[in-house]
Amino acid sequence: MQFHEYTTFRTFMARHGDEQQQEFARKVSSHEFRKSVVEWFGTEANPNDSDEFNQASLALGEAAWAAQDRPSYNVWPIVVSLAPTVRLALHFSQARIQFHSILFRFARGHEPHSLRIALLFWPEGMKTIQLFCHFADEADSLLTVQHAYEPEETVEEWLLRLEQRKSQVSENQHAAGLLIVRLVVFIGLLSRDEDLITPIVLAKDRDKYESTDDEEAKRWIEERAARRAGRGFDVGKKLELAKDKSPHWRNPHLCLFWTGERRTKPIIKMRSGAIVQGVSMAEVPTGFLGAETSEEDQLASEKTPRESISARRRFAILQRDGFRCQLCGAASDDGNRLHVDHRVSLAKGGSNEDENL
Description:
Layout: H1 9-16, H2 19-27, H3 30-43, H4 50-67, E1 72-75, H5 77-82, E2 101-106, E3 115-121, E4 128-135, E5 138-148, H6 155-164, H7 171-190, E6 197-199, H8 206-211, H9 215-229, E7 232-235, H10 237-243, E8 248-250, E9 253-259, E10 265-271, E11 274-276, H11 278-281, H12 294-303, H13 311-320
Parallel strand pairs: 1-2, 1-7
Antiparallel strand pairs: 2-3, 3-4, 4-5, 6-7, 8-11, 9-10
Helix pairs in contact: 1-2, 3-4, 6-7
């Protein structure tokens, strides 16, 4: 899957600025160009001029992005479809933001709201979110969007309020701006799961990276990629690749958990997405649903005698697993009836040992 590339502010001005801007942009580096724009805005520009203000904001946002090793997310289509399904009932002050300036790169042919690239600038300590977007239908133009928020406002309430507000940009562009804010908070929730957000390394290092368990070696390979190509990440790649193998998959979502003594303290936290693949389902025992075939049932009785699981042993297994289903995450506290069964069925050589329950 191919993702759109980012065009720097200097390159954009070298193509589309006035004659003086084009000449200057072609002579200096991107760092020098951004620095000159910010200095010029602070001394000569009119702060009330929206175009000049947007240019200065973009220069600041891009400078923050470059200073953090140009972090970028390749956003796989499945993440775009999952993000709107999660109710972000957490305050902005609780939102976990990995970088204060992040580049979102969308897949070619899968541009949400025609959005190709979005650079998000979310300065620490400021109550504003700024976006700089390139659209597929406006490839040679930059759109700047700025939104204000209150730290104790929930993200979901804020999004709902902005959805109902009239905007000076088109409906498509307005929806794209809200999607980016939802994505950055959603990705912050997913970031705890290493299977859902994976570092991008140089192609020549890929095999070496995937074959080693040496964390120090992996970090060295990641740092080399950051120096040469930026600190990139794939978001949802494994989910995207797995979803075609099975229709059984669960959306990442926020859940209410009861914790503490006697489980009286409620907390809300993320439950990661999950894929149940067909190959995995073949190893899941049917247990209380009965044998799949009479031949399988006969093989099971010949290989390993099926013995009943005592109430004491059943309780010990449930206690070991936190009274939670190891397939779907359902908890007994939610009124679900949990069953103890075999990880590998008896028909396929599984045992009655605790490790297989």
